[in-house]
């Protein structure tokens, strides 16, 4: 199907979307696919507009594909955990992020939401905040990067460039931005990245489990927006064998103590703990093959096997931003997660490593400070 034909279909649907449906409400349930890489969604009709997700409207579904079936899960229950406005069919309709439970009522293996929620509950008194930097590349329907045809490696434009000869896909990124703001997603900004069709949106600051809920809903909205533009978002961390082009999912992290006067010492202590579990984190964050290709060291990324940190550097595992160092408080940036990481998993790993009681650590090893 051509892009022009799909755009025609988008115009044809507009009169139908304008039809009144009150008092009925369409609620789209969002959950994580069995492979853990993509959002899924299905819609049901409620008799009235829900005011919250508390105790409301679980949905039973039979997932498509091989993931759950291969483990014997023929049915799952979708349990709403956070509600947003629907930017596609608009008020009073809703999007709801859901946890996935198996037949026994326990979290499905591919759903990390429940375990992350438990970890956040245990440290809620420390008020952990997160900010997520989601990079992605826009792909055409022929599986080539959007706007690329002859030259396999167009000139790298650099972050923040403007001009059609340098940047492709701005309308998609701006539309996604607007849709997230309408929905109530905590999106804090967008920027173009190093590739001509590569973009980033930022989620946060969010407290605790909130980050995963908002990040996954933003991913769902991105896929839906891209449907309207006839393009496909790719979260693959290393699409091309190019030394400068990769897609990351950097996670910013802090606690109330880190954000308070003198918090830099707490940040240093957290970095030391991260150093001790470096390879465990890298294994949790994503596929080793892709991440080894992405984390090659140099000016833009750290080395896969070696933990490092520095102030105001991009070539390290963990960065302390320059203004955080100057103010003596703030947050750290974990630069190891790839663009296709699961934000729930990354957030859980950070709090479980950085915030356990000191007596649980029997060994202390010096971490690598490169500056």
Automatic annotation (TrEMBL):
The keyword Ligase applies. Gene3D superfamilies: Glutamine synthetase, N-terminal domain, Glutamine synthetase/guanido kinase, catalytic domain. It holds the Pfam family Gln-synt_C. Its main location: cytoplasm. Its EC number is 6.3.1.2. It is an enzyme of class 6 (ligase). Residues 112-371 form the GS catalytic domain. GO terms for biological process: glutamine biosynthetic process. It comes from the Eukaryota. The keyword Protein transport does not apply. GO terms for cellular component: cytoplasm. PROSITE patterns: GS_CATALYTIC. It is found in: Cytoplasm. Keywords: ATP-binding, Cytoplasm, Ligase, Nucleotide-binding. GO terms for molecular function: ATP binding; glutamine synthetase activity. Belongs to the glutamine synthetase family. This is Glutamine synthetase.
């Amino acid at each position: 199907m051509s892009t022009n034909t799909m755009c025609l279909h988008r115009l044809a649907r507009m009169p139908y979307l304008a039809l009144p449906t009150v008092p009925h409400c369409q609620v789209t349930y969002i959950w994580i696919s069995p492979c853990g890489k993509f959002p899924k969604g299905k819609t049901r009709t409620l008799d009235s507009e829900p005011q919250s997700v508390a105790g409301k409207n679980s949905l039973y579904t039979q997932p498509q594909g091989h993931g759950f079936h291969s483990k014997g899960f023929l049915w799952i229950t979708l349990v709403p955990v956070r509600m947003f406005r629907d930017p596609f069919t608009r008020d009073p309709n809703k999007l709801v992020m859901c946890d996935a439970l198996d037949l026994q009522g326990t979290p499905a293996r591919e759903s990390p939401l429940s375990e992350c929620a438990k970890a956040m509950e245990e440290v809620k008194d420390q008020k952990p905040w997160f900010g997520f930097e989601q990079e992605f590349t826009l792909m055409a329907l022929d599986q080539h990067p959007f706007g690329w045809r002859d030259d396999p490696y167009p000139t790298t434009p650099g972050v923040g460039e403007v001009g059609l000869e340098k940047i492709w896909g701005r309308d998609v990124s701006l539309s996604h931005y607007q849709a997230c703001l309408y929905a109530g997603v905590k999106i804090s900004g967008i920027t173009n990245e190093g590739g001509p069709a590569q973009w980033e949106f930022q989620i946060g600051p969010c407290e605790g489990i909130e980050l995963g809920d908002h990040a996954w809903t933003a991913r769902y909205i991105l896929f839906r927006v891209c449907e309207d533009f006839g393009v496909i978002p790719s979260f693959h961390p290393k699409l091309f064998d190019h030394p400068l082009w990769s897609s990351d999912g950097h996670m910013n992290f802090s606690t109330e103590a880190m954000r308070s006067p003198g918090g830099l010492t707490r940040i240093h202590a957290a970095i030391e703990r991260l150093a001790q579990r470096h390879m465990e984190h890298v294994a949790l964050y994503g596929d080793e093959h892709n991440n080894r290709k992405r984390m090659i060291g140099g000016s833009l990324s750290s080395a896969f096997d070696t933990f490092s940190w520095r102030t105001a550097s991009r070539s390290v595992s963990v960065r302390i931003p320059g203004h955080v160092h100057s103010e003596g408080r703030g947050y750290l940036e974990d630069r190891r997660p790839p663009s296709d990481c699961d934000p729930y998993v990354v957030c859980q790993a950070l709090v479980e490593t950085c915030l356990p009681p000191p007596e649980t650590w029997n060994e202390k090893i010096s971490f690598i400070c490169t500056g």
